[in-house]
Design brief:
The structure is a homotrimer of 501-residue chains. With 501 residues, chain A is mainly α. Helices cover 43% and strands 10% of the residues of chain A. The first copy, chain A, has helices spanning 9-15, 27-39, 41-48, 57-61, 77-80, 86-90, 114-117, 122-129, 136-141, 144-154, 171-175, 178-182, 237-241, 243-247, 257-263, 265-273, 295-299, 371-385, 391-424, 441-462, 466-472, 475-500; strands at 101-103, 106-108, 156-160, 163-167, 187-196, 199-207, 284-285, 303-305, 312-315, 327-328, 336-337. A three-stranded mixed beta sheet of chain A has the order 7-8-9. Chain A has a two-stranded antiparallel ribbon with strand order 1-2. A two-stranded antiparallel ribbon of chain A has the order 3-4. In chain A, helix 2 packs across helix 3. The longest helix of chain A has 34 residues, at 391-424. Chains in contact: A-B, A-C, B-C.
Chain lengths: 501, 501, 501
C-alpha cells in the first residue's frame, strides 16, 4: 500500500487546533490497512479523518483533565504508543466475543462493544450502563405489556373467512422496526465461506445484524453500541453532538425531541448559526463555541463557561443522560418520575403490572426517584439554562412544564377511563378477558392518546417548541381523540342495546 | 473583569465587511458586564458577537441610506457615542415599564419592547404595528369564535359518569400552546427575593413569562416582541433572514409555510447552496448574495439588483410583511382578501359573527382590502419574482394560485354545508343551540378541512411546494375528509331514523 | 453593459479546483446579457456562478474520461469555443420547438428540453429516457386506473340536496398537484403582447407553465426536464447531488425517501458532516469527497474509490437511476420487480387491468424484470455498500429488506381482501359496479394501506431509517388501518342486516 492514506491531513489541520505529530500506526493495523484500503476504502478513509488515527492513548492521557477525551487512568502498555487503528479495537478481549474468528492469522471480532471501548473510555461506558438506553432491548422485549405492543404493531395481520388473525412478527421484522433503535441480540451461528477480492475466506454468520441500536446485546453479552451516536469509523464528536444524530430514534410522534427542537428558538438559532459554531472543542464552552444549546449541551456534554485557562464547569459529562431529568415524559402510560434502575423490567405497580404507574396514573413510587432527587436533577438542569437566561425566565419555564405534565396526565386518565368503560361493558376485550390491549381500534386510539399526543405535548413543553405541541401533533389531537373515543363508546353502547332488542 | 470579551473579534472580521473601530462601551454597561460575564456568560458572549456590541448609533447613522440598519433620523445624544449594550436597552423609558426595578443602583426592566427598540429603529417598529402579527394576542383572545377554539383545543377533558366534561385551559396551558406564538400578556405582581451568585436580590415576579410571541403584550402595554425573529442578544440578521426562524410558528399544518418552502425549488436550492450565501449584507442583493429566495426575501427584506454603487431597489424593507400579499390564505374559515386593519377583532360579517367571511364564504368586504389593492400587492410581489423568472412563468404561477384559492374555498363550502346539515337535522349541536362549534367529532373534521387541508393546499400552491399539497397534507385529505364527513352524516341520519322506530 | 458580471469569479476560484481561462462569451449571448442583466439580473447572476459560464465545450471535451462532464464525442463547431450562455441553449433546434419566437432578431425558445441538453450531454439524456421518471406524465395520465385516482384526489367535491357530487379537476388544479412532479404538457397557443422594461414585446402564450416535473412534455414533444434536479441557471452539480433536491418530489408519505434518509445513519452523518464534504468533484470519490452516501451516491453518480490517478470505478454514472434497484417498492398496489419498460402504460395484468400485479399480488411477470436481472441489480448496489460495510452487514441488510417486502405485501393483501369483501357484499361500489375504486372512505383506507403505510415501511427498510417506518408513518398504521377497515366492514354488515329486518 502506498503511503497516501494521510493525504487528507492538511485539510484536517484546518479544523483541529491540536498539533499532531506524525502518527504511529501499529504493525498489525498496517497489515489490516494493506488490504482494507482496497477492500473497504470508505472505512479506511473515514478512519483517517478520525482522531483515533492521529492521536495515541499516551498523548490522550497527557492532556489536562478538562481537555481529556480519554477517561482511563491508564491504558495497557501495548496500546499506549500507537494510534487507535483497526487491530487495536477489533482484536481486544478475543475470548469474550462469540464472533471472534481467525482472519489472516489474527483473531478478530466484528462487533466492537462498550467493554472494548472502555479500555480507554471507562467513565463513559460506566455512565452509559446507568442510562435507560443501555437496557433498551430487555426493557422492551422482556416486559410482557410492551412485548404485546410489539407483537400487535409488527405482526402480520390476516383476513380469512371474514375473520382477522395475526401472525407474530419474525426476528427480521422486529429488527427492522422497534429493535432497530432498541437494539437486537447479535447471535453467532457458525462460519460461512464467502468469495472476496482476496479469494475465498470464512466469516462468522451473525443474526440480528446489522444493528446499531442503543441497547444492542453484543456477542460478548454486553449491552449497548457506542456507534449509535459515535457513528462509524470517524467516531466524530461533531456527529455525536449534532442534533441530527439524535433524530435517528427521536423524530417519530412517540419521542419527538428532534422536530420539537427544530421549531424551538434553540433550534432556530442552531439552524441559522450552527455553521459558525465549534462542534469539536473539549470542554465545550458556552457562548464561545455555541450560542444556543443542542441535545448534547443539555443532556450529555462537559460544559464550561467563563474566561481564561480555568473556566467554571457548568455541567459534568454524562452518558447516563437522565441525571438532569426529573421526569420521564415518555409516558408509559403516564409521565412519571424517572425510574431508579435502568432495568425497568423489575418494576411492578400495585396491580401487578410491569408499568411505572397504575392504569389510573399513580406512580409505582418505590421504583422511581423521589421528590428530593427530582429537585436535584431539575436544579442541575437549571444551572445550564441560567448561563443564558435570568431566574424568572428559567423558573417560569419549568413551572409551565410541570403544569403540562399534570394536564397531559389528566387527559390520559380521561382516555383510560373511556377504555376501561368499554372493557367493562363488553364493547371491547381487555385485561380481564386476557386479550391484547393493543389490537382493537378503540385500544389503538387510547395508545395514541398517551404515546403520541400526550408525549408530543410534553416534549413541546419541555423544550419550548410549541408549534409541534398544538396543531402538528399535540393538544388538537389530545382533545379531538378523546371526543372520538367517546363517540365510539356511545355508538358501541347504542349498537349493543339495539342488538338486544 | 478581564478584557477578554472581544476575543471573538478577529473571527468576526472575516464575515463582516464593516471596518470596526475599537468599540466604546458605556460605563453603565461595563458595570452590567462586570457581573453578568460571570452570572450569565452565555448572554454576554452572544451579545459580543452582535453588531450592537461593535457599532455605535452615531456610526450607524452615518451610513448611506441603502446600507443603514438604523432608521431613526436622530438618536438621543446620550446614546450616540457608545455601542448598544445592556444598559442602553434595559434602562430605556423606565417609567413606562411595569417591570422596572432597582438593581444595583440602576432602574432596569426585564422585557425590552418595540417602543424601546424604536429609539433607533422607528420605521421597523411602525411597520410592524401594521402587521397582523403585532395584534396576534387580541386577535385570538378577544375574538369569541377563535377563543372558543382555544378553549376546546387546550381545555382539560374529563369523563365522569359516562359523560364528557371540559375545564377551560389555565393561563399556563394557553401560554404553552396557542399563545406561545401569538404572545402572552406579561404581568407583574410584585417583587420576590432570590438567592443569586451575588447574594440575595429582589426581582419582579412576572406572569406569562417567558414568551417571545409575535403579539406579546409587554409590561409597558406595547404589542409585539422583536426577539421573535431577531433572537436573543446577538440580534443576528442572519437568524432573522433564515427560514428556520420562521418555522418556530409556521411549520404546523395550519400555516405550513416552512415545510412547503423546503420542498419547493426555492427551498431545494437554499438547502443545497445556502451555505455559500451572504445572509448579512444590507441591502440584500439578488443573485450576488443569494440565488433563491428565503422567506425574508419575498416578505421582509430590502432587496436590490444590478451593478455598481447605485443598484436598483427591487423591494422596500417591510415589517408589515403582508404588503405584497393580496390574499390571506390562512382561511378563517375561507381564504379572503387581507384585512384592512391589523386589529381583526373589529370585523363582523353580515351574520354578525367576528369572521372575515360568511359561513358560506362571501367576504366581509368592508373590512378587507379591495380588488385594486389586491392588484397592487400582487404587482409588488411579481416585481420580485421577475428578477429570476420571465413574465409567462410569473403570470402562470399566479393564475394557478388563484385557481387553487377558488377550488379550496369551494371544498371548504362543501364541508361547511355538510356541517350545517348536521346541525339542522339535530345530529350535532352548533350555533343555534349556543353550543361550541369546535367540540364534536364532526365539527373537528370540519375544522381540519379548512384549517389544515385547505390551508396546506394553498400554501403549497402559493410557494410552489406541491409535494406538501397532495399526499403530505393537502388534496388527498381535502377530498377524503369530505367523504368521511358525508359518511358520518349518512350514518347519523340512519341511526336517528332507527331510534325513532 | 459594464463588464462586471464576472465579479464573483475570485470567490469561485476558492471552491473549484479547475483553472479557468478568461471565458469567451459568444456575441449572441453578449447581446442577451446586455438587456437581461437588467431585466432578469437574478438569472444572469445565477448563470455567472455556473460552470457553463466559464468552460467551453472544447475545454470540457479535453478532460480525461473520468473527469468529463460532457459525454458527447463531439460538439458542433459553432458551439465549441464559447462558453455555454443564453443563446447557446435557447436558440438550439429552433424549428423543433413550438415555443420558438422572434425576439430582438433571434429565434429563441423558452423551454429548453433534454434533446437540447443532449447536444453536449447525450449519454445522460439517453439514460434518462430509460428512467421511469421520463414517462411520468403518461404513466399517470394515460393509465385509466391511476387517472381515476387523480380525478378523485383533485376533483372538486360538492354537496347538494344531501348528495355528494364531484367535478373533475381542471388543468390548473392538476398542474398544481400530481403533475407538478410528474410533469405537465407545455402547450403553446399563440402570442401575446406584454409591456416590458424594453417596451412592448410579443411572447408565446404557454399552458401548463411553469413546470419542472420529471416527465414534462415539452413544446418539442420531448419528455423530461433536466432542470428538475439541475435547477435554474447555475446547473449546479452540488444542487443535483444534494438530498434536498430529491425532497421536492420524495418527501410525502407515498415516496418518503427523503424523511427516511434523514433519520438513517447515512442521513445523520450527512447532516452532521456534509458541510465539510466536496459536492462538486467528478468523479466522486468515496471516503475522500464524502463519508456517507446521499441519494445521488447510490442512485446516480459516477463513483470511484482508491488512490492515485487511476482510482477504481465503483459505479458508473446513471440517469436511469433504477439500474441498481431490483424492486419497485412504490407499491401499485404491491411492491414488484421493476418494470422492463419506462413506459408502464403498456402493462396489463391477467385481469386486464393496467397494473404491474394482480389485485391479489401476483406480479404481471412478462412486463417486469426477471429474477436474474433482479440479482444483477442488487449485486451492483451491494458493490457500492461494500466500500464501507463488510459482507455480513450488507447481506444482512438486504435479507431483512426482502422480508419487509414480503410482509408489507401480505399486509396489503389483507387490506385488499377486506375491500373485495366489502364490494362483494354490496357495502361499497367497486370495479364490478363500474364505480370509482378511490372515492368511498373504505377505499381511501385501502389506498392508504399500500400507498402510504406499506410504501413508507419499505422505504424505511430499504434505506435503514426505521424511525420513519414504525410510529412516524409505518407499521403502527399498517396494522391499525387493517383493524379499522375490519371494524368498518363489521359495522357495515351489521347495519345491512338491520336494514333488512
Amino acid at each position: 500500500m502506498k503511503k497516501t492514506f494521510f493525504l487528507v491531513l492538511p485539510f484536517l489541520f484546518l479544523w483541529t487546533s491540536t498539533t499532531i505529530a506524525s502518527p504511529v500506526v501499529s504493525d498489525k493495523t498496517q497489515e489490516c490497512l494493506s488490504c482494507h484500503a482496497q477492500v473497504t476504502p470508505g472505512i479506511v478513509a473515514d478512519w483517517e479523518q478520525s482522531l483515533h488515527s492521529r492521536v495515541t492513548p499516551e498523548e490522550g492521557l497527557e492532556k489536562p483533565a478538562l481537555k481529556r477525551r480519554v477517561s482511563a487512568k491508564s491504558v495497557p502498555g501495548n496500546l499506549l504508543k500507537t494510534v487507535v487503528g483497526c487491530a487495536e479495537c477489533h482484536t481486544l478481549r478475543p475470548d469474550t466475543h462469540k464472533d471472534t474468528f481467525d482472519h489472516n492469522g489474527h483473531r478478530i471480532h466484528i462487533v466492537v462493544s462498550p467493554p472494548d471501548c472502555s479500555t480507554c473510555h471507562p467513565e463513559e461506558a460506566s455512565q452509559y450502563s446507568r442510562n435507560l438506553m443501555s437496557h433498551a432491548y430487555a426493557n422492551l422485549n422482556d416486559n410482557p405489556v410492551y412485548h404485546g405492543l410489539v407483537d400487535q404493531v409488527n405482526g402480520t395481520v390476516t383476513f380469512t373467512g371474514g375473520k382477522i388473525g395475526i401472525t407474530p412478527p419474525g426476528e427480521q421484522t422486529n429488527a427492522d422496526a422497534c429493535f432497530y433503535c432498541h437494539g437486537t441480540v447479535i447471535g453467532v451461528s457458525g462460519m460461512r465461506e464467502r468469495e472476496t477480492a482476496m479469494g475465498e475466506m470464512a466469516f462468522p454468520v451473525l443474526s440480528g445484524w446489522p444493528n446499531q441500536g442503543v441497547g444492542r446485546i453484543n456477542p460478548d453479552a454486553s449491552k449497548g453500541s457506542c456507534t449509535s451516536c459515535h457513528a462509524r469509523h470517524q467516531f466524530s464528536i461533531k456527529v455525536a453532538r449534532n442534533p441530527a444524530t439524535c433524530s435517528q430514534c427521536h423524530k417519530g410522534p412517540d419521542v419527538p425531541a428532534y422536530p420539537v427542537y427544530l421549531v424551538s428558538k434553540h433550534g432556530n438559532i442552531y439552524s441559522s448559526l450552527g455553521d459558525t459554531w465549534n462542534f469539536t472543542n473539549v470542554p465545550w464552552k458556552i457562548g464561545a463555541d455555541f450560542t444556543a444549546p443542542t441535545c448534547a449541551v443539555c443532556h450529555v456534554s462537559l460544559l464550561v463557561a467563563g474566561e481564561g485557562d480555568q473556566p467554571e464547569v457548568v455541567a459534568e459529562r454524562s452518558h447516563q443522560m437522565n441525571d438532569r431529568l426529573a421526569w420521564r415524559i415518555f409516558g408509559l402510560v403516564y409521565a412519571h418520575p424517572h425510574p431508579l434502575s435502568p432495568d425497568t423490567t423489575v418494576i411492578r405497580n400495585k396491580a401487578g403490572l410491569p408499568l411505572p404507574t397504575e392504569l389510573t396514573g399513580e406512580p409505582a413510587a418505590s421504583f422511581l426517584i423521589d421528590a428530593g432527587e427530582q429537585k436535584n436533577r431539575t436544579a442541575k438542569m437549571k444551572k445550564i439554562c441560567s448561563n443564558c437566561h435570568a431566574g424568572s425566565w428559567v423558573d417560569g419555564h419549568f413551572a409551565r412544564f410541570e403544569e403540562t405534565i399534570r394536564v397531559t396526565n389528566e387527559m390520559t386518565l380521561t382516555a383510560t377511563k373511556i377504555l376501561l368503560s368499554a372493557w367493562e361493558k363488553g364493547l371491547a376485550k381487555g385485561l380481564a378477558q386476557n386479550d391484547s390491549i393493543f389490537n382493537e381500534p378503540i385500544e389503538r386510539m387510547w395508545v395514541e392518546e398517551w404515546l403520541f399526543f400526550a408525549n408530543s405535548t410534553r416534549f413541546a413543553s419541555a423544550m419550548a417548541g410549541a408549534d409541534y405541541g398544538v396543531f402538528a401533533n399535540g393538544r388538537w389531537y389530545l382533545s379531538k381523540n378523546i371526543r372520538r373515543m367517546h363517540e365510539w363508546l356511545d355508538l358501541a353502547l347504542q349498537r349493543k342495546e339495539e342488538t338486544k332488542k
